[in-house]
Amino acid sequence: xxxxxxxxxxFHQRVFSSVERxxxxxxxxxxxxxxxxxxxxxxxxxxxxxxxxxxxxxFFSISPGAYYQIALPAVEAAGGDVNAVSFFxxxxxxxxGTYAEFILPLLIVIGLFSRIAALGMIGFIAVxxxxxxxVHKIGAEATGAWFDRxxxxxxxxxxxxxxxxLIVLAIKGPGLLSVDSLVGKMLPQARA
Length: 192
Description:
Layout: H1 2-49, H2 55-58, H3 64-70, H4 72-77, H5 87-110, H6 114-134, H7 140-143, H8 156-172, H9 179-186
């Protein structure tokens, strides 16, 4: 009996060590980037699109809605006039937040500066969550709680799941099937 258990344990160890060794180089990063693209890319791009003007030229124009979404307390303090909101720090935060919401997801999906972009998105989601709870005052039912029987809370449950592929990318990198890997192969001195 012990011999059979040892053979089964050894077989298990060989199979999954091989799977881990093969997949570690390219699979985790690829799956994390695919998951982010499939679940969050369009969400963030659509959200960012609500913060700029219409058309191609509108991309370079921050809309008043961006101020209401990102810096509502500053807009309220300015009497609802976004033009009266000071550029530093509020206008700068709105501009950086808007363009980060466009650029960071695209960098993650193509695998360029992936670890930095993943860390940026983790920070972005943390700030987004803080703003949703403190500024937009979403209710407790949307905030939810961990370790309860309801897996559908918009904040506690969903945002934790959003963070998981980003944490994988920040720790493991984007994998071999990425622009980062291609650039690394083209610049061998960068590895030294």
